[in-house]
Design goal:
This protein is mostly beta strands. Helices cover 2% and strands 40% of the residues. Strand 13 and strand 14 form a beta hairpin. The N terminus and C terminus are likely disordered.
């Protein structure tokens, strides 16, 4: 006993124990979210038993995540998080990691890529869109010779975001085996490795091929990640044309990583306010982190996806798709109804063709934009010796009105200490847990100081872990209207992990470190 507590007097030990247990707070409850939103996170590693997940096609569960396709030709797979719906009134923030590697190129390019998509939460049995260039989101029409290759776009589709390695997701095509609207006539400086957004499913236009599921899904914006000069991007205009855009990426990169490291995608959908109380769709931002702990690269910078989108159906048959003619007809102006569904669901898809590669995703997180962010902490202690952990040092919450032009600021000083909770039982659990007893020891939280104390049990050896979540504060104006919603349960962070390692040498005093070991805040 004396050996393990060398340098720590009995009086000081009693003081530490008294301080932390006397001021540890008891459990309490919080108010349910007025927005009906709860954060979601899943590693997707060995997640076959997760009831909210369903896979289609060649997708499979693996120890490193969901493999959407293996590295072989003609593969097509999808993942739906179909057991969860998310309200859209306050926007969405999505994070996921991906790996595209191995395989064989065609014409120097690998294929095809992967897509992330949002679809109407009212759809109970979703089906991924077309394989190949459609990457599971858009449709594919054909003439009768290739009728078996006809495929409707994603059911209930609202928004598709493709990491398009081969480069065909953005392109207009009219040929026997593939007819889809898109961008035509551009000699791209880099046609491969594009981040491309396509819009919602369109309305039925006629019975000659342009029926439900075979119209809409228009290209909204596309940008190359391989070039800052020449023809690098296009963006849809209100007159239905595509305006050339420039790139100023701080670093160029291929979407395909190939070195075995996972990359991370950040997607923000921020409500686009036209008045203080009225919105028109979302402002969409896409960032990609290409190196571990590196600064994410902004690829799409707040594209305004409106609820009404003029576009052109420009891959129409002269008469009908249901014959063997390859004569193209006139393009027709259309207006897409992109009304935001009341609730959304999300999923992923990937496809390969003559060019192929392996596609894997993992570590999906879904929160609200500007939800609190809790990051992992590490501490160490000696046998029987408590350790205090200032967990908020590397965490943040936000303050300020939700806005793209003047976004709220993030800081640990914005955290509401009273909202801390240890591990909850489920996403809708409203209990705030301030004490947890495990075989490894006792975890207590002091809401006055923001300190977590771990007191190891007498038999503890090795490593102990515990998760926790946090929130910010809600601010109302003089009329009681919420102007800063960050104390709502919808803005609770996804869980962070506290790890305590038992030291076996140098046991004189407790040693505390608060090293960030998960992705930091941008």
């Amino acid at each position: 006993m004396k050996k393990n507590l060398k340098g720590l007097s009995w009086m000081s030990l009693i003081f530490v124990l008294f301080t932390n247990f006397a001021y540890a707070q008891t459990d309490s409850t919080e108010v349910a979210s007025i927005y009906g939103f709860y954060s979601y996170s899943s590693s997707l590693m060995n997640a076959s038993a997760a009831p909210e997940l369903s896979i289609q096609g060649s997708a499979s569960h693996t120890s490193t995540g969901i493999q959407l396709t293996p590295a072989s030709s003609g593969q097509f797979g999808g993942l739906f998080i179909n057991g969860r719906t998310f309200t859209s009134v306050n926007g969405l923030h999505v994070e996921f990691e991906y790996d595209m590697k191995n395989g064989t190129p065609l014409g120097g390019a690998y294929g095809d890529g992967l897509s992330f998509f949002l679809y109407d939460g009212a759809v109970t049995s979703p089906t991924i869109g077309a394989p190949g260039a459609g990457i599971g989101y858009s449709y594919n029409r054909t003439q009768n010779t290739y009728a078996s290759q006809r495929k409707a776009g994603l059911s209930g589709a609202y928004l598709g975001i493709a990491l398009d390695e081969f480069g065909n997701f953005k392109s207009k095509r009219f040929q026997g085996e593939s007819r889809v609207n898109g961008i035509a006539g551009v000699a791209w400086s880099q046609a491969t490795s594009h981040v491309t957004l396509r819009g919602a499913r369109g309305a039925a236009i006629n019975a000659n091929g342009l029926g439900l599921g075979y119209t809409g899904y228009p290209v909204l914006v596309t940008r190359s990640t391989l070039s800052n000069s020449g023809a690098v991007g296009r963006i849809l205009q209100t007159d239905r044309s595509y305006l050339a855009t420039s790139n100023s990426l701080p670093s160029l990169f291929d979407l395909r990583n190939n070195a075995g490291e996972f990359r991370k995608v950040y997607l923000d959908l921020i409500p686009h306010f036209t008045t203080p109380t009225t919105t028109d769709g979302f402002d969409i931002k896409v960032d990609i982190q290409t190196t571990q702990n590196g600064t994410p690269v902004n690829v799409i910078n707040y594209y305004h996806y409106k609820t009404s989108v003029p576009y052109t159906e420009n891959a129409n048959p002269q008469i009908t798709d249901f014959n063997t003619s390859d004569v193209e007809g006139a393009a027709t102006p259309q207006t897409l109804d992109a009304t935001v569904p009341a609730v959304l669901k999300l999923g992923f898809a990937a496809a390969t063709g003559g060019a192929y590669q392996q596609h894997i995703i993992r570590n999906v997180k879904l929160t609200l934009p500007y939800a609190a962010v809790a990051n992992d902490d590490i501490a160490s202690t000696c046998k029987l010796q408590p350790v205090n952990i200032p967990v908020f040092t590397n965490d943040i919450a936000y303050k300020g009105p939700i806005s793209v032009t003047t976004p709220p600021t993030g800081s640990s000083s914005n955290i509401d200490y009273s909202t801390f909770s240890f591990t909850k039982n489920n996403d809708t659990d409203l209990t705030l847990y301030r004490k947890k007893v495990t075989p490894q020891g006792t975890w207590t939280y002091n809401k006055t100081t923001g300190i977590v104390t771990f007191n190891p049990s007498s038999g503890f050896t090795g490593t102990a872990t515990m998760t926790y979540t946090i929130k910010g504060r809600t601010v109302k104006d003089s009329n009681g209207k919420i102007i800063e919603p960050y104390g709502d349960t919808a803005y609770r962070s996804t869980p962070a992990t506290i790890t305590v390692n038992l030291k076996t040498t140098g046991c004189i005093y407790s040693v505390i470190s608060n090293r960030m070991v998960t992705q930091g805040v941008k």
